[in-house]
Fold these 2 entries.
Entry 1:
Amino acid sequence: MPHIEIFSTASCPYCVAAKQHLERKGLSYEEVRVDLDPARRADMLARAAGRRTVPQIFVNGVHVGGYDDLLAADRDGRLASLLEAVP
């Protein structure tokens, strides 16, 4: 089973859209709310090469990016490849 992490905040419409996109595909994910846990924001910044915006999405430890990046990866087949590469 693939491991998907979404670093998000409560008031982010792109976070909601990313989660809905994954749910429509039947994928489960772990949501990490950086607005509730500032230490996790530091983790996100380190893993996402300093990208500060949310969502930041990781599939099996690989940084996909934000919502637009997720959609692009889904369209061009990269998401399917990442989902198959179960660690």
Note: The chain has one domain: 4-84.
Entry 2:
Amino acid sequence: MMALKHSNIPVLPLILLALLCGVLVGGHLIPLEVKQHLLSISLLLKSILLLVLPFIIFIYIFSCLTSFEGNVFLFIGLLMAAVCFSNFLSTMIAYGLSQGGLPTIAGDVFAIKGHLDPAWSVSLPSLISNEWALCLGFASGVIFSFYPRPWVIKLSEKGKTAATLFLDKFFIPLIPLFILGFLLKMESEGILWQLVKTYFPILGLLIGFYACYILFLYWIAACYKIQTMFLYIRRMLPAGFTGFSAMSSAAAMPLTIKGAEANTGRPELVKAIIPATVSIHLIGDSIGIPILGIAILLTFGYPIPDFSTFIIFVGYFILAKFAIAAVPGGGIIVMLPVLEKHLGFTPDMLALITALYLLFDPFFTFTNVMGNGAFAVIVSRFFKKGK
């Protein structure tokens, strides 16, 4: 299968939407044996991903932290603290929104009418837990940012290249096949149409909240001046629409820098802030993934997580953001083990949130890019005052 390249049209969501429509209309015509083999392939791809994921998490965190030099640790430390606070705030706002809005939208528990078993299964060993990969990546990244070694940096870049190749050339192109088996399973169980009716209204809820939150952030960035707020937003819209079409904050980075420079008048700070945070400051993901996750829990008959459970999830969720790969779907891929362990997601639920994330990813990425523009203005003003 050919790799899915970035273009002016978000190709992957269109493919998944066509796949969804095809299964809804003609899934019942596919022979049972074919469905079972396709489900087996989906489970195999999931096992391969979970086997490789600890390495991907480690190498992306390590590479991210070692790219910062120790002699600018104060600046980087404050910047990372601001990123973590913003992601934490966005995630907790999503939790609050879920408490009020989601039970009415996603409150119906699906009645399963059938069952589909895989034709075969392959069990792959787990070499290291994702939590250990997170901790080791952070610890070693901080150490080698202070005591850099050329061979370590070179090895880190090779590892990052290998991880990106695995995602970009192997797993991302196979995502439609990964999703297909689980779509057929949900179609066989009679819940696929119920899922469609449930989750597309949630997209409307997300878009509305995204718009309000972006306006709020730019209102703060503009020092509470409405006219200035809309000027800042207008300057950032080209970057936002680029992120929407490419499903990549990194692809929109040149325009994000340009818009933020115009809004701050401090190009030297913007050129340090945006590249350092473009893949880790993701308010669209911070709001969207928890809301989708809680909606899925509700529709599969689970309660909304209590506050203590959700706080533990948020901690790992924020740490995992440092390991996100700059590829379509990278925002959800590294979150799958966090959702599985800390929110109790089953394989069906993991496949569903992956499919929904990729369908909604253009809107998530638009919000990420616009959020990065506001973040750059607010943080640059903070450093200006602290200077």
Note: Residues 1-7 have pLDDT under 50 and may be disordered.
